C-alpha cells in the first residue's frame, strides 16, 4: 500500500481538480518550467493528462490507474507526468485536443491522455480514456505505457518526422482572410438558418440526435431571425418555432433540475430525459439569457419561470459570498452518477400528503417504470398540468399550487443528502457569461436582485482579477492566477455591456473600455484580423490558436466582434469597429463553408452590416430608468438602451455630448447618426417601434 499521507507536487495548486490528484502515488507535476526542464534533462517523454473536476470518466481513470500503486510505478519510471485542469489552461487543452484529432482521426474529449516529446512538447501519440485492463478494443493502460516508452526510445527519427508534419498541419490551420474587395453579405446567415432547419428534431426539439446538447447560441440566433422578420409580410415563424420548441422540451426534460433550477451539461438520449448530471456555470449563464429573451419574445410563463429558477440556482448554489460565481457541480455523489438527483416513489409518497403526491407522481412520471438505470426515477415532465387537472377534477391553478408545494418539500429533503462535489474556483470567462445572463434576466423579469448579483460579480472580478490593465483567468483561495485568454476578455466585456443597460455605473464603462483596449493591444492578429486565443506575451507553446467556431462556449472571436461593434458605436470609436470588421473578414472563408457552426459570429456579422440602434436616456435617475424599462418590455435584440442619470460623472465625450436637459430626454442613434433629443416617452416609443 502506498502511504496515504504522501502528497505530490499538486498539493501546492489551487485547482480543485489538481488537488483531487495530490495524494495519488503518481509523481504528478503541474504544467510549468520545473516539469518541462526535468523532462528535457532526463530525456523522458511527458505523459500529459488533461481533465476537469466535473468529468465522470476523469474520475474513473483516476480511480483505476492513478490511485493504483502498480500503475503509478510504471508512470513514474517511464515518464514525467503532468496534470492539467482544462478550465485553468484552455490554451493547452485546445492545442492538444486538435493534435489528438490529427494523430488519431478521432474526436477528442476528456480525460485527454497525450504523450509529448520532452524537447519541444510536440505530441507523438495520444488518446482519451484508457482502461486499467484491456477492454472495449482499448489496450490496458500499463501495456500502453510500456509500448509508448519503447517507441520513444527506438523510433526517434519517425517521431521527429511525424512531429514536423504535425507542426506544418498546425501552421496551415489559419486560412487567409477575405480580400479587401470582397463584400460581406448576409448570405451565410440565410444558409445557417436552412442548415439548422435541416438538423432540427421537430418532435423533441434540438438539433441532431443523441447525445443532445443545448446549443444556446443556435437558439439565440433563431430568435433573432424571427424578430428581424416580425414586421414583414411573411415573418419567419419556423425560426421562432425551432427555438421555442427546443426551450420547452428542455424545460420539461430531465436535463432541467425541476427542484433546484438550472440545467445539466447535456442529455444522453434524444428526448432530453436523462442528462449527464454535471451542472456547469457556462451552460447556465447562456441558457438563463436565452430563456429570458424567449420570455420577453413570447410572453410564455414557462420561460419566465425557468429563467427565474435558473437565476435563483446560480445565486443560491454557485455565487460565493465575495461575489464571484463558482465553476461547476459534479455529476457524481457518494461514488454514483446522479445519486443526488434521483428518487424512489415510496420515499416521495412518504414525504408528501396524498393530494400533493397524486399530482406530483403523474406530472413527473413516478407512476411509470423507473427511467434511470432500471431502478431509480429521474424527474421529467410526462403529463401536463391541464391533463392532470381534468383527470383529478381540479382547477389548473390548484395543480400548480400543489406542484410548487411538493417541489419545495422535496428540495429541502434533497439538500440534506450528500452533495456532489463543487468546483469552487472562479473563472473570469464563465463569470462573464453569468453576468450577461443575469443582466438580461434582470430586465426581462424586472428583478433588481439579479442586477445586484451581476454587479457584485463584476466588482469581484475587477478587484481580484484585474491588475495593471490586464485580466487573470482564475481565482481560488485568495489567489488570482494565469494570464487571461481571449474568452475572459470577450465574455466579460459583453457581460459588462449588458449590465450597463440594466444599471448604469460609469466605472463599468471605464472597465469595459480597458478590456477592449487590452484585447486590441495583446490579442489582435494584426496581419489577418481576428484575435488569437492567447496574448502576445503568453507562454510560448507549439501553436498560437485562433478559432471562429462555437463549441460548448460561443467563439471568443464572435463575442469580441459583437461587443467591440457595440462599444464602438456607443463611444464613436472607429478602432473598435475596424477590429470587429477585420475579424469578420478573417472568418469569412469559415462562415461560407460551415455557417451553422458559427451562429455567434453570424450575430456579429448582422450587427456589422445592420448596426444596432442605441438609445441613450438622460434625466433624473428614476425617471430615466422608467423610460428604459418601458422600452425593455419588448424583445428587441438589435437595440441597446442606456439610462444615464443627469448628474452621472466620468462620461466620455461621445456620451457627455448627449446632454441632460431640464426634463428627461432620449437620443436615438443608428450607426454614427443620432436624433435630436426626444422629449416624451410616447414619442420615443413611436420612434423606436419595429
From TrEMBL:
Transmembrane annotation, as ranges = none
Domain Spermatogenesis-associated protein 20-like TRX: where?
8-169
Origin superkingdom? Bacteria
Which Pfam families does this one have?
Thioredox_DsbH
What SUPFAM superfamilies does this protein map onto?
Six-hairpin glycosidases, Thioredoxin-like
Q: InterPro entries, alphabetically?
A: 6-hairpin_glycosidase_sf (IPR008928), Ssp411 (IPR024705), Ssp411-like_TRX (IPR004879), Thioredoxin-like_sf (IPR036249)
User: Coiled-coil segments, which residues?
Assistant: none
**Record Gene3D superfamilies:** Glutaredoxin
- Spell out the protein name for this chain: Thioredoxin domain-containing protein
User: What lineage does the source organism belong to?
Assistant: Bacteria, Pseudomonadati, Pseudomonadota, Gammaproteobacteria, Steroidobacterales
